Amino acid sequence: MNILLILVSVLLNCAAQLSIRKGMLLIGEVGMNGFIQNLGSMLMNAWLWIAMLCYAVSILMWMVVLSKVEVSFAYPFLSIGYVVAAVVGYYFLGGIAIINTYYGNFSDLYWSIFDFKKLIMRYYILGGNGFVDRYLANALVERGEQVVVCDLQQNIDVRIQGNIEYVMVDIRDKEMLKLLPVTTEDVVINLAANQYHTKVPRNRKDYFFSVNTEGTRCLLEVVFEKGCRNYLMFTTDMTYGRPQYLPVDIRHPQNPFGPYGQSKKACEEICFEYRRKGMNITIMRPRMINGPGRLGILVKLFKLIDFNLPVPTIGSGKNHYQMISVFDCVSAILCAIDKGLPNKEYNLGSKNPPDIRTLLTGVVQVAHSRSKVIPTPGRLVKFILNILDNIGLTVMYKEQFMIADEEYILDISETEKDLDWHPLYNDEDMLKDAYRMYKKQ
């Protein structure tokens, strides 16, 4: 019993030291002259409070210990703390291979007893001010996780709540990425991307490849060098191109016909390279993502409905065009994390999507509009849209309209089976909710 008290006291003292180090890493280097200036940050730092609590309990237990045994017996046990501090210190500094070589069994025992590994794990969300990203950040905080949001903007999005660290970083800048204190225990989630939901410049290839492909390459190089092996990546269903069979599963040939899909396919190839180097990389390919906070191309549709104008489909409107809710995207990411980030690609989409005509008619009814959903000759419409795009009068981008009149359903069965994930939102409700949100704005 005395030895158990001694060990607990020693390890609490060690935990206090490590918590101080963790806290000061977040605050930054502090000199004696700047101590007072940083006092406020220190008082608000949860790690330093954890350290003080550990110290207090450790001292109380040490007093109990020395009331029972001689100091000559108890004091040598402090050396255990030195070994533990050295082992855990390597985790902070990224030297996991050395630790596993020399202290593997002891390290595994330590983590299993104290679960300190979870305490130091952080989730880095690249593109963290983005649409899916901010919902994910809030969901992780609700689970009690430590989250670091990284984005180009100077400040964190106000819709992201909770005690979250924010870092301004450009995914294309390796030197900036190297400043991120990523450790071996952290999870990096890359949702940073240039997409079609904002105005796209004429030089689309450079626009998409610079962030989606080269940004991914820079990020993976830095993360790998720091010893982190846990990575999740969102790409797109546009990597498949025109469907050759239905439903489109993850083994469907990838023949993207536009620069966005091509940039994401190239990004996946980089991920495959780092899988071969030993990283766990989960790749998710979502359909068109819908939910509160993003309207994109739907604004044009809703304006037609508001003005009681005809709502043309591209083609007959009898085809099915799947979507995915932002909330289902977030739940899929959380499921992948819980499953240990499988080295696999996963499709994300809704279940049993209705045909386009039924989908649009439902929105017209909710809006109490006199608009009529009318079919059009698909080939002719696409021909005209392509001409308008080529002369700079873009109504829709090629990757958006080229398969708009075709059946396009992703097979999500493997995602459901492997991740124990099931989409909760259907296309009709998503589109109706999007219209209501549009009206509020």
State the gist of this model.
The chain is of the alpha/beta class. 51% of the residues lie in helices and 10% in strands.
Structural class: alpha/beta
How many individual β-strands? Answer: 11
Low-confidence runs (pLDDT<50, min 5 residues)? 93-118
**Oligomeric nature of the chains:** single chain
What proportion strand?
Answer: 5-15%
Distance between the termini: 66 Å
Average of per-residue pLDDT values = 87
The biggest sheet amounts to: 7 strands, parallel
Total number of helices: 18
Strand order, biggest sheet? 3-2-1-4-5-6-10
Q: Level of helix content? A: 40-55%
Q: Judging from the principal axes of the Cα atoms, what is the shape? A: elongated
Q: Sketch the topology as an H/E string, one letter per element.
A: HHHHHHHEHEEHEHEHEEHEEHEHEHHHH
Please explain how this structure is put together.
The structure is a single chain. The protein is of the alpha/beta class and 441 residues long. It contains 18 helices and eleven strands. The strands form three sheets. Strands 3-2-1-4-5-6-10 form a seven-stranded parallel beta sheet, with helices on both faces. A two-stranded parallel sheet has the order 7-9. Strands 8-11 form a two-stranded parallel ribbon. Strand 1, helix 8 (131-142) and strand 2 form a beta-alpha-beta unit. Helix 1 (2-27) packs antiparallel against helix 3. The protein is elongated. Residues 93-118 have low confidence and may be disordered.
Per-chain topology:
Layout: H1 2-27, H2 39-43, H3 46-66, H4 71-74, H5 78-93, H6 96-114, H7 116-120, E1 122-126, H8 131-142, E2 146-151, E3 165-168, H9 174-178, E4 187-190, H10 204-225, E5 230-234, H11 259-276, E6 280-286, E7 288-290, H12 298-306, E8 311-312, E9 323-325, H13 326-338, E10 345-348, H14 356-366, E11 373-374, H15 378-390, H16 398-401, H17 413-419, H18 427-440
Parallel strand pairs: 1-2, 1-4, 2-3, 4-5, 5-6, 6-10, 7-9, 8-11
Helix pairs in contact: 1-3, 1-5, 5-6, 8-13, 10-11, 14-18
